[in-house]
Each structure stands twice: as structure tokens, then as C-alpha cells.
């Protein structure tokens, strides 16, 4: 008689949604995990006969699926959530660069990681370079990275320089460093931030057994043609384009040299501008994997064709404050052209959160409304866009994004024993259209159980929240946000803000 193999954990008796190439869904299925890696996926009968463990997790009336992957969000936003005025915008850069401390960024990083964890997002992307965030000193990104390690999930830390032509900061650039109550204002340059990015890659890329990855994020790799709602800008083509080319090449070279992901914003006109002013040969070098284009609203067909041919990643944000200005992201056309499309959150401000499950129906509805056709963007494809396709966009689909033998054991359990999830005849539709992050019951990252039965196992939620509140209050004392909070009678009774 053959004795069963002893493994670290077995999750059994649930509905396994693998997101593997065959898109298998296994009723009464199980997953065996050892040394942080998936060693078997199959039926209860198969797995429980072949494997044994001291840690058996009963997933009865639960869905077992890969952890979600959020391919684009902004660090810092967690501590300014809901502080937004339709005319004034939000107090991002003035507060970030002149009212925050390393402890503020650590508190925000833990808050973000905890929010993602509780919503079943096991891998995230957090922009702390470029805009709006700060890499004038490596300490701020380093504190964010440490915060993620302490909570236990995975995150790409996106670092990079501010844009010199669409500047979210008054020039010349300065940042305030706080020593207790004493403020020290220091100038910094584009070159300073690039040097800091190289240091952060050297110090943090691959940290925490690979749970931290550093990516290069620049605001507008190919320029920005979409009008910014609050920052006036205009390119002086003869003067600016040579600088844009030099900086784009520098960023691509740094990414290639260290084998890290390149990440940028893109809207209608950006890709066409690049081909017109950078040249086709240079664009072939810049517009290639690994690369993620965040937002990607309103692309022309010529841009869709070029992006599809390059098969680069897309980080669609279905619901954000700027989307109405640029039109919808052409998800259907990008998928058909060959792009690797993922659904993302953009962070927790000004009026979103890290519940990636909520973004799935928003993305679907966006395309249904565009085409007046409910057959476009099937729910199965949309689920791929927050799991295996999102992992592929980030270049880590060989390690995460699906429940397959040999991959990291990033697993979440969804509690289906709830009124809004009964009956469960069509599990993929329930996951895509009905489940929210609050339905996530259990979270495992790299085989380590972080939450079970909604109970956090390794971090103190009350302590993280109290620290976040204290750091937010300290920053608001340094930078007055009262104007962003003003309301009047029209706010409550009018049809227009401040009639």
C-alpha cells in the first residue's frame, strides 16, 4: 500500500476555479500545497488519497481560486481617500511632497496592503514614483516596500521621475523633509530621481523571497496628448521632443539592464505621437514587453494596431475621475488586436477602493454600453483579466495567476454561503458580477495563510488603522485640506456641485 505524500496544506471540498489553460472548474475539488508551491490540483478523491497534511482547510460551500492581481494603483492615495473637490481636485502633490514623512508612507503602505489582502488581492502595483508620489529620496519607497512585507502580500513598487513637461509640481522641484517639527526644504532634479530609482531596484527588487518587485513607472513615456483637467501644458516640439526621446531611452535602458517591468500612463494620441515624433524604429524598441500602459482610454485604431502587434500589457481602469474626459478604453479592440488586457483599480482615491471584484462588472458594463451588445467581454475573459491575464501583463504569469502545479500558492476562498450568491449554478458569472471583496473568506500567499474566516492571522488590524489615522492627521496639520472638504446647500439638494 502506497502511503500518502505529506504536504504543508490541503484545501479541499470546494469548487476549484483554476484559471488554467483548460479553464477547469472542479466541483468537490482540492489543492495540495507544499513549500509555498502548488503540488496538485484535482478532485477531493484524488488529492485526499494521494496527499495528507496536518493543515486541512475545509472549503465546503466556498470557491477556491487564484488570488487577484491588481496591475495598477497609486501609493499615497490610501491616506487621502474621499478628499476630492470637483474644481480643486485632490491635495496629492502638495501634501505628498511637503507634508509627509517616511512613517506616513509606511502607514499608508500597510493600510493599502491590508485593504488589498482583505479584498483577495494577493499581488498589487503601487506607483510611488513619477506622479503623484515621491522618489526625491529612496526612503519613501523603501518604507512602502517594508510595509508590504510586514502585511504579507506581493506588490510591484513603481518608481520613476516626475514628468518635466506635464509637471504636477511647481518648478524648480522641491520636497520637504521633516525632522520632528522642523521642516527642511531640499531641491531635487530629474537626475536625482533616476539615481534613486536605480538604488531602489538594487536594494528591493526580489526582496521578501520575491514578494517585492520594483518596476520603473514614468508618467507619460510617449507624451500626453489628452488635455489635463487642472494642469495646462503644451509641447514645444523642436525643444521638448529630443529631451523626451533621451529620457524614454534612458528609462528603457535602465529597465532592460535590471530586467524590470516598465509602466506608464497612456491615453488617446500618445502612441501616434510617439510614431510621429520618435520614429518607428525607436518606437519598436520602446513599445515592447515588459510594458504596461495604464488607463489606455480612447485609443485610435492605428494605436490599437501598434499596441496589439507589440502584445504589451494594458491596465484598464473602469471607474476613475478622468475617464469621462477621454472616452472608454477600447478593451474589445485591444484584446482582438493581441494586447494583454488586465482590469485595475488605480488606487483608493479620489472615489474608488482596492476591491478589484467591483471593477469587473464596471469593465463589462463599459463595453456593453459601447457596443450595445451584452455578448461582448464574456465574464470568463473578464475573470482572466484580474488573474492570469493580469499576471501576464506584469510578466509573472509563470509564477502566479492560476492554480497550476509548480506555481506559487497564492489562493483565495470565496464564501458562497450567502443570500446574494445562491444558487451557484453558474459560478463564473457569480464571481464576475455578484461577488465583492467582502465575500473573501480566506487568503494564502506563497503557501502562508494570512486570513481565514475573515480573521487576520499575522497582523493587528486595529493597530494598522490607528497608525494610519494618526499619520493622516499629522499630515493634515502640516497641509490644510479644508478647501477640499467644503460643501454648501447645493451639495445636498442641488443638481450641480456648488450651484
Give structural notes:
- The protein is α/β, with parallel strands linked by helices.
- It has two domains: 5-66 and 403-456, Urease, subunit C, domain 1 (Roll); 68-394, TIM Barrel (Alpha-Beta Barrel).
- It is built from 19 helices and 21 strands.
- The chain has helices spanning 44-50, 92-99, 102-118, 139-151, 190-204, 207-210, 237-258, 270-277, 280-286, 301-310, 323-326, 331-337, 356-371, 379-384, 388-394, 427-433, 461-478, 482-485, 489-493; strands spanning 5-6, 9-17, 25-34, 37-43, 51-52, 56-58, 62-66, 68-69, 121-127, 154-159, 174-179, 182-187, 212-218, 262-267, 291-297, 313-316, 340-343, 411-415, 440-445, 448-452, 455-456.
- The strands form four sheets. Strands 2, 3, 4, 6, 7, 18, 19, 20 and 21 form a nine-stranded mixed beta sheet that branches. It has an eight-stranded parallel beta sheet with strand order 8-9-10-13-14-15-16-17, sandwiched between helices.
- α3 runs parallel beside α4, α3 packs across α17 and α10 (301-310) packs across α12.
- The longest helix has 22 residues, at 237-258.
- The protein is globular and about 75 Å long.
- The termini are far apart.
- 50% of the residues are buried.
- The model has no long low-confidence stretch (mean pLDDT 95).
Keywords:
single chain; 499 residues; alpha/beta; Urease, subunit C, domain 1; TIM Barrel; 2 domains; nine-stranded mixed beta sheet; 21 strands; 37% helix; globular
Amino acid at each position: 500500500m502506497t502511503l500518502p505524500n505529506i504536504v504543508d496544506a490541503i484545501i479541499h471540498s470546494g469548487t476549484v476555479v483554476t484559471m488554467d489553460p483548460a479553464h477547469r472548474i472542479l466541483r468537490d475539488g482540492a489543492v495540495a500545497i507544499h513549500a509555498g508551491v502548488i503540488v496538485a490540483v484535482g478532485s477531493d478523491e484524488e488529492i485526499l488519497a494521494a496527499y495528507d497534511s496536518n493543515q486541512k482547510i475545509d472549503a465546503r460551500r466556498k470557491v477556491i481560486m487564484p488570488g487577484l492581481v491588481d496591475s495598477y494603483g497609486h501609493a499615497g492615495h490610501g491616506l487621502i481617500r474621499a478628499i476630492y473637490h470637483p474644481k480643486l481636485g485632490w491635495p496629492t502633490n502638495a501634501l505628498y511632497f511637503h507634508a509627509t514623512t517616511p512613517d506616513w508612507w509606511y502607514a499608508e503602505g500597510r493600510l493599502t496592503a491590508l485593504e488589498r489582502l482583505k479584498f483577495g488581492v494577493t499581488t498589487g502595483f503601487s506607483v510611488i514614483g513619477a506622479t503623484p508620489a515621491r522618489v526625491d529620496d529612496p526612503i519613501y519607497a523603501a518604507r512602502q516596500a517594508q510595509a508590504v512585507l510586514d502585511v504579507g502580500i506581493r506588490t510591484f513598487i513603481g518608481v520613476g521621475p516626475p514628468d518635466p513637461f506635464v509637471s504636477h509640481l511647481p518648478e524648480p522641484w522641491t520636497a520637504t523633509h521633516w525632522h520632528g517639527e522642523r521642516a527642511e526644504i531640499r531641491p531635487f532634479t530629474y537626475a536625482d530621481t533616476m539615481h534613486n530609482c536605480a538604488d531602489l531596484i538594487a536594494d528591493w527588487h526580489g526582496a521578501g523571497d520575491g514578494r517585492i518587485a520594483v518596476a520603473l513607472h514614468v508618467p507619460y513615456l510617449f507624451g500626453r496628448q489628452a488635455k489635463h483637467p487642472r494642469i495646462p501644458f503644451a509641447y514645444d516640439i523642436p525643444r521638448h521632443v529630443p529631451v523626451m526621446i533621451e529620457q524614454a531611452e534612458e528609462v528603457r535602458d535602465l529597465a532592460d539592464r535590471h530586467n524590470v517591468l516598465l509602466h506608464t500612463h497612456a491615453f488617446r494620441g500618445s502612441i501616434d505621437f510617439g510614431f510621429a515624433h520618435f520614429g518607428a524604429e525607436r518606437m519598436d524598441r520602446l513599445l515592447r514587453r515588459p510594458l504596461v500602459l495604464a488607463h489606455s482610454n480612447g485609443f485610435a485604431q492605428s494605436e490599437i494596431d501598434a499596441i496589439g502587434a507589440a502584445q504589451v500589457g494594458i491596465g484598464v481602469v473602469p471607474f476613475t475621475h478622468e475617464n469621462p474626459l477621454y472616452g472608454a478604453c477600447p478593451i474589445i479592440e485591444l484584446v482582438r488586436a493581441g494586447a494583454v488586457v488586465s482590469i485595475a483599480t488605480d488606487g483608493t482615491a479620489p472615489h474608488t477602493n482596492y476591491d478589484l471584484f467591483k471593477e469587473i462588472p464596471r469593465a463589462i458594463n463599459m463595453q456593453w454600453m459601447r457596443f450595445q451588445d451584452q455578448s461582448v467581454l464574456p465574464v470568463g475573459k473578464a475573470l482572466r483579466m484580474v488573474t492570469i491575464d493580469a499576471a501576464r501583463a506584469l510578466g509573472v504569469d509563470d509564477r502566479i495567476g492560476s492554480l497550476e502545479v509548480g506555481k506559487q500558492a497564492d489562493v483565495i476562498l470565496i464564501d458562497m454561503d450567502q443570500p446574494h450568491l445562491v444558487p451557484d449554478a453558474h459560478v463564473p458569472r457569480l464571481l464576475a458580477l455578484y461577488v465583492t471583496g467582502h465575500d473573501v473568506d480566506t487568503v494564502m500567499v506563497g503557501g502562508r495563510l494570512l486570513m481565514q474566516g475573515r480573521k487576520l492571522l499575522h497582523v493587528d488590524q486595529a493597530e494598522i488603522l490607528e497608525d494610519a489615522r494618526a499619520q493622516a492627521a499629522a499630515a493634515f496639520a502640516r497641509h490644510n485640506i479644508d478647501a477640499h472638504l467644503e460643501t454648501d446647500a447645493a451639495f445636498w439638494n442641488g443638481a450641480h456641485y456648488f450651484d
